[in-house]
Amino acid sequence: MSATRAQNIGIRAIDVYFPSRYVDQAELEQHDGVSAGKYTIGLGQSRMSFCDDREDISSMCMTVVQGFMEKHGISYSDIGRLEVGTETILDKSKSTKTVLMKLFEESGNFSVEGIDTTNACYGGTSALFNACQWMDSSAWDGRLALVVAGDIAVYASGNARPSGGCGVVCILVGPDAPLALEFPLRGTFMEHIYDFYKPNLSSEFPIVDGPLSVTSYVRAVDHAYTAYLDKLEKVEGVTNPSLRDIDYIVFHSPYTKQVVKGFARMAYNDFLRNPENEAYAEVQQFKDVSREESYGNKVLEKAFINVSKKEFAIKTEPSLFAASNIGNMYTGSVFFGIASLVTQVPYEQLKGKRVAFFSYGSGCAASMYSFRFRSDTAAITQTLDLAARLESRIKASPVEFESTMELREKTHNAQDYEPAGNVAELFPGTYYLQKIDTMWRRAYGRTSLN
């Protein structure tokens, strides 16, 4: 049992993993026969990571955890909690976290709390909350926690496929963290809605109501952001809180154009709370528009994108580096955002600043919460080496990408199966699927570190 209460609990270190292959979105536009800019401008995406049948959610999580522990020199015996946020399900009963316990065998540490937590793209945030609250409670035993979040985002052939992606993140949660969670500054919104869901367990593909999903996202921004501002006012005594009280904002990014809309929505909410603010002089015509009507008002949306453009470029755009180059990582998306922010913005500019996270999962569950930068993030940035790693990937043609998607679809939930993917193309240190036996038990290998 820890003798003293943990202080400044939060993110002590972070690492990410994404597959070694990607497809260029401009080339995919040409291949799909759509108008130039539909994916690159309309969605705001440049490249999309994908994997073949050699990788699944368990192998990817093993890759990021083992790589994280090796890079940071952390012993598995120092971990007291490990929780996985994912919606990529391999088994309806057995959690991905239990597969990761294979990595703990050599240390002899089997006393590790936590399992999987699932609700679309929100599971990673729930896992992070659970880890931080465990550490902030009398149940904490003094050890550190790992939060693993990520997914393989794939869609059926058609309009939604370019909004896929693939990636996982590993976060070390501990006291005296460079990014300290601001307890209890948190706004949460949840409701029952069928915007994106996966009822067909024989398929990887979701059922998506695109327009409803976009509306659900911005509705969640409205409610979570307003609740967060109310906490700022009540807990910290901030008068008329607004975007000016948040230095950086990281969003869940299904595609980066949606984040632009989400940020504009926060500006819209600031306008509703303080319509006489001179910053909103050019949008006074929207003062009497009802909130419900505003969701489908494209003129209003465009106006607030324009009003908030300069602030967006400073506070949010740097966090979209990974999202534009990888695509949607579902539960890992918001955390790839913070990895991007510390990569793109030097610590001298981050020092002492507040960064808010907006996490959204369809169905729907959403929260806005925040951290403070307390100490130097240079070591995190150096270890991530994000830009160089992204550039080291292999570019696949759209034809190869489509062929891989067909392979994944054909072999989903296969048994007595040996994967066909090329192990030689995987990054060093990548765990991969060797075979699935007649009882659906999966065996994994690992590529050489050299």
TrEMBL record:
The keyword Transferase applies. Its EC number is 2.3.3.10. Residues 6-178 form the Hydroxymethylglutaryl-coenzyme A synthase N-terminal domain. One of its GO terms (molecular function) is hydroxymethylglutaryl-CoA synthase activity. Keywords: Acyltransferase, Transferase. GO terms for biological process: acetyl-CoA metabolic process; farnesyl diphosphate biosynthetic process, mevalonate pathway. Residues 181-446 form the Hydroxymethylglutaryl-coenzyme A synthase C-terminal domain. It catalyses: acetoacetyl-CoA + acetyl-CoA + H2O = (3S)-3-hydroxy-3-methylglutaryl-CoA + CoA + H(+). The active site is at 87 (proton donor/acceptor), 121 (acyl-thioester intermediate), 252 (proton donor/acceptor). It is an enzyme of class 2 (transferase). CoA binds at residues 159, 213, 257, 261. Pfam families: HMG_CoA_synt_C, HMG_CoA_synt_N. NCBIfam families: HMG-CoA-S_euk. PANTHER family: 3-HYDROXY-3-METHYLGLUTARYL COENZYME A SYNTHASE, HYDROXYMETHYLGLUTARYL-COA SYNTHASE. Belongs to the thiolase-like superfamily. HMG-CoA synthase family. Catalyzes the condensation of acetyl-CoA with acetoacetyl-CoA to form HMG-CoA. This is Hydroxymethylglutaryl-CoA synthase. It comes from Coemansia spiralis.
